[in-house]
Amino acid sequence: MPAGGLSSSSPPRTPANDYYRADDDEAWVWTQIKAEARRDAESEPALASYLYSTILSHSSLERSLAFHLGNKLCSSTLLSTLLYDLFLNTFSSDPSLRAAAVADLRAARVRDPACISFSHCLLNYKGYLACQAHRVAHKLWTQSRRPLALALQSRISDVFAIDIHPAAKIGKGVLFDHATGVVIGETAVVGNNVSILHHVTLGGTGKASGDRHPKIGDGVLIGAGATILGNVNIGEGAKIGAGSVVLIDVPPRTTAVGNPARLVGGKETPVKHEEFPGESMDHTSFISEWSDYII
C-alpha cells in the first residue's frame, strides 16, 4: 500500500484537481469500506454478523453511518429508530455533511498510523463518530431545533466523552485523535484539515457572553492536553504544543508551546514552518529551535 495509506486504485489527486467530485469520492470510499468489511468478516467469523448489520446490509455510507450512530447513541428513552431516521434524513438532505464525513474518514486513514482501514475508523473511532453526530446536532441548531440539538449533544458527551456545543462550527477533513476529554465551546470555529488530540479545550475565559471562544484556522495541529481560552485566533497552519495554555492570538505557520504559551523563536521573529502540521501531524520539529538541552 502506498504512502498515505490509500490503495493504488484511489482516484488520483493532482495540483490542478485537488477536489474531484464529492459524489465520486463518496462512492469510492464506500466501495472500499464494503470490501474491507467483507474481508474482515471472512477472516474473523465472530464479527460477521456485526459487520453485516453495520455495513454490508446497507446501500450507502449515510445509511450505514446513520444506523451505527443510532445504535451507539440510543437510550431507553431516545430510541435507536428515532435517531436512525434523524441521522439518515439529515445526511441524505445535505450533501455537504456527506462530503465532510468522507473527508474526515480520509483524514483519519492518512494521518493516523493506527488506523488500519476506512471501516475501522467508521466503526471504532469515537472521535470520528462524535464529529459526525455533532454535524447533525449543528444542523438542528441552525434550524432552531435547539432542544433536540442539546439532547443530542448530551448523549454524545455521555457515550463518547467528548463535549461539543451544537452551535460550534467545524470544518471538514478534521481528525479528533483519541478524542477523550475534548471540549469545544458554543462560539468556537474549527477550520478545515485540523487535527486535535485528546483532552483539548477550546473554551471561554469566564462568564462573559457573546463571541467568546477560539477560532482555529485551516491546517492547525493542537497537541494533547492543550487549552485555548477566549475569542483568540489560531492562525492557518499553526501548531499548539501538548499541554500548552494559549490566551492570545497565534500567528499563522508558527508554533506555540508552554504554560503560558510562547512562540518558538520569540514574538518578533517567530520560527515559521512551511508544512501544514494539521496534516503532517509533526508534534516535535520545534524542539531543536526551543532549547539546546532536551530532556
UniProtKB/TrEMBL annotation:
SUPFAM superfamilies: Trimeric LpxA-like enzymes (SSF51161). InterPro entries: Hexapep, Hexapep_transf_CS, LbH_SAT, Ser_AcTrfase_N, Ser_AcTrfase_N_sf, Ser_O-AcTrfase, Serine_acetyltransferase, Trimer_LpxA-like_sf. Its EC number is 2.3.1.30. Gene3D superfamilies: Hexapeptide repeat proteins (2.160.10.10), serine acetyltransferase, domain 1 (1.10.3130.10). One of its GO terms (biological process) is cysteine biosynthetic process from serine. Residues 29-133 form the Serine acetyltransferase N-terminal domain. Belongs to the transferase hexapeptide repeat family. This is serine O-acetyltransferase. It comes from Hevea brasiliensis (Para rubber tree).
